[in-house]
Design a protein that fits this description.
Keywords: Hydrolase, Protease, Serine protease, Signal, Virulence
Number of helices: 15
Shape: globular
CATH topology of the largest domain: N-terminal domain of MutM-like DNA repair proteins
Largest sheet: 7 strands, antiparallel
Strand content: 25-35%
GO biological process, one term: proteolysis
Family: Belongs to the peptidase S1C family.
GO molecular function, one term: serine-type endopeptidase activity
Organism: Odontella aurita
Structural class: alpha+beta
CATH architecture of the largest domain: Alpha-Beta Barrel
Length: about 650
């Protein structure tokens, strides 16, 4: 019998008498029975089974050789790329049951905001998730598990009692949140009862786990109320965005670990252990659909360490759990965000572009196409357009903006910036006008051109003028899916609006895009229909609108002018002409002009359409519109406060200018 082994994709192909048999690259059967395909793909431990080690044997009379003879010594594809496969005895398998005491079930009640009807809240909902104990008597979980929570209950493994918890800090950009057990006035010792017997987890060493290393995800997924363990391997280490719907508005890409252990709803926030029972990451996403089977993602421990370091610099992940807690949680915990990538780039793979930039043949890198204006103001020495970035922190950048994580594992270079702790500088090697420069700068968060997160950089705000409902453009507007009614209103345009704005850097503080999202029917706006109402506002009476507060002040000034003049003319004009009730040619001229007259409000939008309403009519219809739609006031409190502050700032500036002129 002649056997010719071929090494391919982790299998040994053995040709025997024109028949083929496939064997997994595993230790000898006598040492350790190989797991079945099901257990490798992330089945629950209670459901997994052990196979016989032979797959696809062809020919009933063929006796395959024992694995101890057929399999060559364990190998590695490249150092740091594929884990060295070693013989493992049953005694070496970690007993994860000793870690179960660190893992908790979270039962969350929440009430989400309603950005489409910003004066309302959505109906109460509930969900479950997982979490685990870390240093300082804290619980770590995903931010999306406890987002908008009104009540959080924590249940320990093997204990039916529920303890109340509260969120003390969260990081939406890394999808992490820290909880503390809430001490009630009736039973202040209840916190001690919870932590009795609960141990903080142990963290793996810095750096993502190697490919093909075994991992176990532990938590409380759907399908039951007891703790569940799924096992698999590290399939990929990548650099991608943690945000699904608003990826274009994110600060940059972060390291992420893909595993083939099942991650289901309810697993979110649970730990992922390595072979030694140490935490290598936090479960947070899984792909669904026929094209994705057993594709789950975990947040690597490095990202978690950075988050914990940033919110409380003196407390490290493995610090003493009895750390001093004399200060209030609100003061102790503060998170500003990851270091942001403040530039846009283009690949340098085209030979003509390389010649134009006079790039040496042996050099690689990318060309800077845009730089954040706010970053240019913040940092004295910074990147410029047409700079060629060749290295970041001494690591060579490829022509496609990739960098080696571990030798041959190439990925997006954003992680060299977003993966840093706050206060750590980044060094860019650049070529500018054929000259080599080093630029060292400590980066930080930057305000997004489109606000990203509810209660972080935006809240539901509104302004109603003559039944026109205006709101600021924010990423939470994307949270409403697609219904027939929403599609009829032009809601799907919001994806284009956000995508367009999010790819741009914010040019000045306080600037925001304003959306008309509905036309609340009344006599004042008759002739303008709510169908396809979604559009972006550009000017009012010929004046550019900076933000919602600016729009509020424009309308207030127009109302005061009309009240002083006693002008009560009413003219209604649609986008194409004059309504039959229009009064005179002079009225029409005033209404259709953009000369700043306050008798009429001419709203021009970026799609070149317009709406014209009489200012006095808007005032007189306000009470009726608000009552019919259950709106408490024409403008939200946030807009009113911003408008007052804006007025005060302008008044102060004008006073200072007058004094200077004198």
């Amino acid at each position: 019998m002649v056997a010719s082994p071929f090494l391919a994709a982790g299998l040994i192909l053995i040709v025997v008498n024109q028949s083929s048999a496939f064997y997994p690259l595993l230790p000898a059967m006598s040492d350790f029975p190989p797991p079945s395909p099901e257990s490798r793909r992330g089945k629950s431990r209670s459901e997994s089974s052990l196979g016989d080690g032979r797959r696809g044997a062809v020919g009933a009379n063929v006796d395959a050789p024992p694995l101890s003879e057929a399999v060559p010594p364990p190998f590695t594809q490249s150092e740091g790329s594929i884990r060295h496969l070693t013989h493992m005895h049953e005694d070496d398998i970690p007993d994860l049951s000793s870690r179960f005491g660190s893992i908790v079930l979270l039962e969350v009640s929440y009430v989400e905001p309603n950005y489409l009807r910003p004066w309302q809240k959505r109906s109460q909902g509930s969900c479950t998730g997982s979490g685990f104990a870390i240093s300082g008597r804290r619980i770590l979980t995903n931010q999306h598990v406890v987002q908008d929570a009104t009540d959080i209950r924590v249940r320990k493994h093997g204990n039916a009692k529920r303890w109340r918890a509260k969120v003390v800090c969260n990081g939406p950009d890394v999808d992490l949140a820290v909880l503390e057990i809430f001490a009630s006035e009736e039973d202040p010792e209840d916190v001690e009862t919870f932590w009795d017997g609960v141990k903080q987890v142990e963290w793996a060493a810095d750096g993502p786990p190697e490919l093909q290393s075994s991992v176990n995800v532990v938590g409380y997924p759907t399908g039951g109320r007891t703790i569940c363990v799924t096992e698999g391997v590290v399939s990929r280490v990548d650099c991608r965005n943690y945000r699904i719907k608003t990826s274009s508005a994110a600060a940059g890409n972060l390291l992420v670990i893909q595993i083939d252990a099942a991650i289901n709803p309810g697993n979110s926030g649970g730990p992922c252990f390595d072979d030694d029972g140490r935490v290598v990451g936090v479960a947070f996403q899984g792909l669904e659909g026929s094209d994705a089977q057993n594709v789950g993602y975990i947040i690597p421990s490095n990202t978690v360490h950075n988050f914990l370091y940033d919110i409380e610099c003196e407390v490290e992940p493995n610090a003493d759990p009895k750390a001093d807690k004399t200060e209030s949680s609100a003061k102790r915990y503060k998170y500003e965000g990851v270091q942001e990538v403040p530039f846009r780039w283009a690949p340098l793979q085209n030979k003509s572009l390389r010649k134009l930039l006079k790039m040496p043949k042996e050099s690689t890198g990318v060309v800077v196409t845009r730089v954040s204006p706010l970053a240019e103001k913040r940092y004295n020495t910074f990147l410029k357009e047409n700079d060629v970035i060749t290295h970041i922190d001494g690591r060579s950048i490829g022509d496609d903006y990739t960098v080696a994580l571990r030798q041959d594992e190439l990925m997006n270079a954003d992680f060299l910036i977003t993966g840093k702790r706050s206060g750590v500088p980044t060094v860019f090697d650049v070529i500018r006008d054929t000259k080599s420069l080093k630029i060292s700068v400590t980066l930080g968060p930057l305000p997004s051109n489109v606000p990203r997160e509810h209660n972080l950089d935006c809240t539901p705000e509104w302004l109603v003028i003559g039944g026109l409902l205006f709101v600021p453009l924010t990423c939470p507007l994307l949270a409403y899916g697609s219904t027939e009614e929403l599609e009829a209103s032009g809601y799907l345009k919001v994806y284009d609006f956000i995508d367009e704005q999010a790819h741009e850097f914010r040019k000045e503080e306080g600037k925001e895009s304003i959306m008309l999202i509905d036309i609340l029917a009344c006599d004042t706006n008759f002739g303008y229909y709510f169908r396809q109402s979604w559009r972006a506002l550009d000017t009012v009476n010929g004046n550019k609108v900076k933000n919602m507060a600016d729009l509020h002040n424009m309308y207030s000034d127009a109302c005061r002018h009309v009240k002083r003049s006693g002008n009560t003319k009413t003219v209604s004009i649609d986008g194409d002409g004059v309504d039959s009730k229009a009064a005179t040619v002079g009225d029409v001229a005033n209404a259709s002009s953009d000369d700043g007259t306050d008798d009429f409000l001419t709203f021009r939008f970026k799609d070149k359409t317009r709406i014209v309403l009489g200012t006095a009519e808007c005032q007189s219809s306000e009470k009726e519109v608000l009552e019919q739609h259950g709106i408490p006031k024409a403008a939200s409190d946030g807009i009113i406060e911003q408008a007052k502050s804006s007025k005060t700032a302008v008044s102060t500036k004008n006073s200072a200018s007058t004094v200077s002129e004198k």
